Amino acid sequence: MANIKSAKKRILVTKRRTLENKIVKSKVRTAISKFEKSLADGNIDNTKAALKAAIKELDKAYSKGTLHRNTVARKKSKLYAKLNALNA
Fold first, then answer.
1. Can you name the CATH fold of 8-87?
2. Contact residues for 75 (Cβ-Cβ < 8 A; gap 6+)
3. Of 26, 70, 71, 75, whose CB neighbour count within 10 A is largest?
């Protein structure tokens, strides 16, 4: 257990940031799973709307610093590839 005041503060800040990151990551996973569920149903209009929502959540996660830029790019690329496979 930390004894120094600054170390105690760092513990509290880390807990708060960890919680915030979990919330953001959960939103991203939920948006992606909604996209994949919509993709499985085969409805193109709903799938495109779900893709737009998933991309928005991924971009938010990057802007908040939760996800790395390359991770977001990779996930977006996979989502677009799945949508294009449905169209083809």
1. Methane Monooxygenase Hydroxylase; Chain G, domain 1 (1.20.58)
2. 28, 32, 58
3. 75
- Encoded tokens for 44: 């193109």
Residue spans of the domains in the chain: they are: 8-87
Handedness of CA 66, 32, 44, 49 (dihedral sign): negative
In the structure, what pLDDT confidence band is assigned to residue 87 with cuts at 50, 70 and 90?
A: confident
**pTM of full prediction above 0.85:** yes
Paired tokens of 22: 């979990």
Tracing tokens 């996979």 back to the chain, one arrives at: 78
Which pLDDT tens digit goes with each residue over 22-70?
999 999 999 999 999 999 998 899 999 999 999 999 999 999 999 999 9
